[in-house]
Specification:
Layout: E1 10-16, E2 23-27, E3 32-36, E4 55-58, H1 65-78, H2 83-86, H3 96-106, E5 114-115, H4 116-122, H5 129-137, E6 150-151, H6 164-180
Parallel strand pairs: 1-4, 5-6
Antiparallel strand pairs: 1-2, 2-3
Helix pairs in contact: 4-5
Length: 181
Amino acid sequence: MSQKGLAMAELFYHTMASQDGPFTVVADDDDVIASGWTDDLDFLMHWDLPLRSSVIQRTGTNLTPLLRKAADAVAAYYDGDDQPVRQVPVWQQSTPFQTRTRHALAVVPYGKCISYTDLANAAGSPNGARAAAAVCANNHTALFIPCHRVIRGDGTLGGFLYGLEIKQQLLDREAGITQQG
């Protein structure tokens, strides 16, 4: 993906309640730049993001159009519909492999899990399971790019920045809604 020039961008963030705790979304006018289960911006320090020097403003109740769309999508997700989450534009600086891997992640069906090996295969790199795991570990836009749906080949969870408890809750919720539907 192209360089976005986030170091000079005006960014906005909004924190909303979710069944798994506070969920924060950081966005410019066009794309979600970062998201995750936290109520502060400390989670931005996990990545080498150029946005650290950007002007970041809390939106309160007066959300930008994109933050409104993201908040509505998160609410829909927790109501059992992940289609709105898939419609929220996201941006992450990426190599070609990272882009292919994120595209493969974005189409993992709701309620399903794949292994890191399966993800690497879907991204066109059959020997790239560790690299696929690294893409998941460096996913800035949790939920919008559903890295929580990737597990180890032996069926165990693997890592998750927001904790294995949240990852398991997300997977259980998705599996439960899928089974009911």
